[in-house]
From TrEMBL:
Record-level GO BP terms: proteolysis
The protein's name: Uncharacterized protein
Record-stated family: Belongs to the peptidase S8 family.
Subtilisin-like protease fibronectin type-III domain: residues covered: 669-770
UniProt xrefs under Gene3D superfamilies: 2.60.40.2310, 3.50.30.30, Peptidase S8 propeptide/proteinase inhibitor I9, Peptidase S8/S53 domain
Residues of the Inhibitor I9 domain: 44-123
Domain spans labelled Peptidase S8/S53: 147-582
A Pfam family matched in the record: Peptidase_S8
Coiled coil: none
GO MF terms, alphabetically ordered: serine-type endopeptidase activity
Lineage, highest ranks first: Eukaryota, Viridiplantae, Streptophyta, Embryophyta, Tracheophyta
UniProt keyword terms in alphabetical order: Hydrolase, Protease, Serine protease, Signal
Length: 777
């Protein structure tokens, strides 16, 4: 299973989608959406330039009060009581009730940047649709009617049909061509299916196969991709709101596999294609790289692609080690995981004054003034005893690579929080080490007990302090709040598997990244529980498992708008429009790496971590050009890998002959990215690509290239002119290495990167390029 199977990444939720409130136009300091009724009073937000505060005001508060008294005179003794809120962190200013005339006068005051009428916003607990730029009022959701009618099949652990995320309120019936159905079982009434959940089957060797999800994984990913709108969802005190999937009106078909055997998975894929799904989402991966001809899942997905079904798969959770990416065939869309712009900050205050920032969902505020002893504990059941930890803050050091001495070790078979709480500890700090990064760190079950999670860098500082101090002490601080937009995002999740492709290095994988850290979505209920309702709950999970359904949802939106596109065209649209920049406009970072001394380091992410970049649904709806490929192209690709006739027959029995030599070998496939290998025999590599114009109007595209300084890249032609929709044009790229005997490349494993962009005023079609030099052995 390609999700992070650890309780450190659960029970955390709440994503807020806040529409922008400020108007940057100096000519309109008043919010353009404000009508400013002259007599009636409303609440307004006065956005102030705090640097413009006149020096005779002792504080900003005094200045704000003076503004109110001057521009909104009222017969009150203290105008400061009229100020409802003040803002001093994410912005500066205050909220106050004003009439329209008063607001207009206030907007003209010196130092006022803007005046904005307060308005009701929509909260989204699944923050990721908003983070991806999806908005109910315009753009991709409006253009595609939220993916209405597109059917996404999930090969996963089953589904909890009672969850409100699978309500069919407002949805029409499934299309007449749909051949799927719901197969009931003792614990699953087939009548629970509806116009949202249109299919549910179990592929299991058990005596009573049931599609009901008792594990939770399938329910979570299905609601992430296609969950219906559900209001008033949240976790405890952390901002309730509306949850929805990436394609909220798409339909769901679940193909439950229990043992994750390739036989079950292949059967599920087969049934999904037979039933008539449009998209298949598979958050499952093999542990070891396998040649495609020996990979049953790869072969099954090849068949699905041949039938016109777009298949998206998880890239794996073995990062940040190189060459760990899974599901790396060219007919698969392979997804890595990134972070989102939301944190649950809490802090550990050390006795030497150091403050370490972590994350927590503990629901009781604390100011961190009570210092208590710190103790590192192995955090296995036999050591979490009152004589060891009572009255102390317990520090647990976790590594995902550690197997543990038994099932109880490191929380694998026990609830660490419950045991620590029962033993009388004052708090718990969970430190994630090894390949984990700070943005992956979240404490488990923190709602009822004071605990937080720390990432690698903060954990290293904590351990250094405890090693240097004979009697280490600390306190915990909890603000009980969610912070949106304060952190750079996305960053590549440290666990996300990396390239280069371990099966075919000449093919760049992963393809893209999507949100995969702290994703809130539906979870199973419990018919016999007093705590968990029958209709389920909502939990937070992380992994490339959670990134994958985001891409499935985006693909459903594309499919709705472009029903005639091939899977390769959809994949190309996702790749060539992906972003390499984060929410600050800077390059996406990879903070999951560690230097030779074991210190965490933050570097710019390479395409081996991000693929082409972070998915952008709105741009993927209209990519301008796409790189298409079909069965014959993939067979030629396999021929370039020297597959035998027998091996080719496993994919395409009717095309098991090699009819042409693919220029450039495996790297010559008409893929939206490039991998250039200078192998020591030649310093020139020439590759060809063909693009198809999918926009309707006539267009001219010009090329721009970025490459390492010791590589000369020549694209011929340098401009492409198109007149008709679906018109094709080909181009060649000559990559010439200028490395000389006096300018020798470093080790064989060294890679460098660049890009090729075809663009005009409306479209930018970007292909990442990876370069490496190999010696001629």
């Amino acid at each position: 299973m390609a999700s992070i199977n650890t309780r450190l990444l659960r029970h955390l939720a709440l994503f807020l989608f806040l529409a922008p409130l400020t108007d940057s136009s100096l000519a309109s300091k008043i919010n353009s959406q404000s009508t400013f009724k002259s007599q009636s009073s409303s609440i307004y937000i006065v956005h102030a330039n705090h640097l413009a505060k006149p020096p005779h005001f002792a504080t900003l508060g005094h200045w704000y009060t003076s503004m109110v008294a001057t521009h909104s005179p009222r017969p009150v003794a203290d105008h400061s009581t009229r100020i409802l809120f003040t803002y001093d962190t994410v912005m500066h200013g205050f909220a106050v009730k004003l009439t329209g005339d008063e607001a207009r006068r206030m907007s003209e005051a010196v130092g006022v940047s803007g005046v904005h009428e307060d308005r009701q916003l929509h909260y989204m607990t699944t923050r990721t649709p908003g983070f991806l730029g999806l908005d109910p009022g315009f753009g991709a959701w409006q253009d595609t009617d939220f993916g209405d009618g597109v059917i996404i099949g999930f090969v996963d652990s089953g589904i909890w049909p009672e969850s409100p995320s699978f309500s069919d309120t407002g949805l029409g019936p499934v299309r007449p061509s749909w051949r799927g159905k719901c197969v009931g079982a003792a614990d699953y009434d087939a009548s629970l299916c509806n116009n949202k959940l249109v299919g549910a089957k179990a592929f299991t060797a058990g005596p009573m196969p049931s599609p009901r999800d008792w594990y939770g994984h399938g329910t979570h990913v299905a609601s992430t991709a296609a969950g219906s709108e559900v209001r008033d969802i949240g976790i405890d005190m952390f901002a309730r709101g509306t949850a929805r999937g990436v394609a909220p009106k798409a339909k769901v078909a679940m193909y439950m596999v229990s043992s994750l055997s390739t036989s079950q998975i292949a059967a599920a894929i087969d049934a999904a294609v037979k039933d008539g799904v449009d998209i298949i989402s598979i958050s499952i991966a093999d542990d070891a790289p396998t040649p495609f001809y020996n990979d049953i899942v790869s072969i099954a997905v090849f068949g699905a692609e041949r039938a016109g079904v777009f298949v998206v798969l998880a890239g794996g959770n073995e990062g940040p080690k190189a060459s760990t990416v899974k599901n790396a065939a060219p007919w698969m869309t392979t997804v890595g995981a990134g972070t989102v712009d939301r944190l649950f900050p809490a802090s550990l205050n050390l006795g030497d004054g150091t403050v370490l920032i972590g994350q927590s969902l503990y629901t009781m505020k604390a100011n961190g003034t009570n210092m208590v002893p710190l103790v590192i504990n192995p955090c296995v059941k036999k050591t979490l005893t009152p004589d060891q930890i009572m009255g102390k803050i317990v520090v647990c050091i976790f590594s995902p690579e550690d197997k543990g001495e038994d099932d109880d070790d490191q929380g694998q078979g026990v609830d660490i929080v419950e045991i620590v709480q029962r033993a009388g500890a004052a708090g718990l700090v969970q430190v994630l080490i090894s390949s984990w990064s700070p943005d992956d760190a979240l404490a488990d079950d923190t709602a009822t007990f004071p605990c937080l999670g720390l990432g690698y860098a903060a954990g290293k500082k904590l351990r250094a302090y405890m090693a240097s101090e004979p009697y280490p002490v600390a306190s915990l601080s909890f603000a009980c709040e969610t912070v949106i937009g304060a952190n750079r995002a996305p960053m590549v999740a440290s666990f996300s598997s990396r390239g280069p492709n371990p099966v075919v290095p000449e093919l760049l994988k992963p393809d893209v990244i999507a949100p995969g850290v702290n994703i809130l979505a539906a979870s199973p209920g419990d018919a016999g529980s007093q705590d968990i309702p029958r209709n389920g709950t909502y939990l937070l999970e992380g992994g490339t498992s959670m990134a994958t359904p985001h891409i499935a949802g985006v693909a459903a939106l594309i499919k709705k708008k472009h029903s005639d596109w091939t899977p390769a065209m959809i994949r190309s649209a996702l790749i060539t429009t992906a972003s390499t920049l984060d929410n600050t406009g800077r390059e996406i970072l990879d903070n999951g790496l560690v230097d030779p001394n074991g210190n965490a380091k933050v570097t710019v992410a390479t395409p081996f971590a991000t693929g082409a970049g972070h998915v952008r649904p709105q741009l993927a709806m209209d990519p301008g050009l796409v790189y298409d490929a079909g069965v014959r192209d993939y067979v030629d690709f396999l021929c370039a890998l020297n597959y035998t006739t027998e091996q080719l027959r496993r994919f395409a029995p009717d095309m098991a002959t090699c009819t042409r030599e693919l220029p450039g070998g495996g790297a010559g496939l008409n893929y939206p990215s490039f991998v250039v290998v200078f192998d020591g025999r030649t310093d020139v590599r020439t590759l060809m690509r063909t693009v198809t114009k999918v926009s309707q109007e006539a267009e001219m595209y010009n090329v721009t290239v970025k490459a390492p300084e010791h590589v000369k890249v020549t694209v011929t032609p340098a401009a492409l002119e198109f007149k008709e929709q679906y018109e094709k044009r080909s181009y060649t790229v000559e990559f010439r290495s200028q490395v000389t005997a006096g300018n020798t490349k470093a080790a064989e494993a060294e890679w460098e990167f660049g890009h090729i962009i075809w663009e005009n005023e409306k479209h930018q079609v970007r292909s990442p390029v990876a370069f490496t030099w190999k010696t001629n052995n």
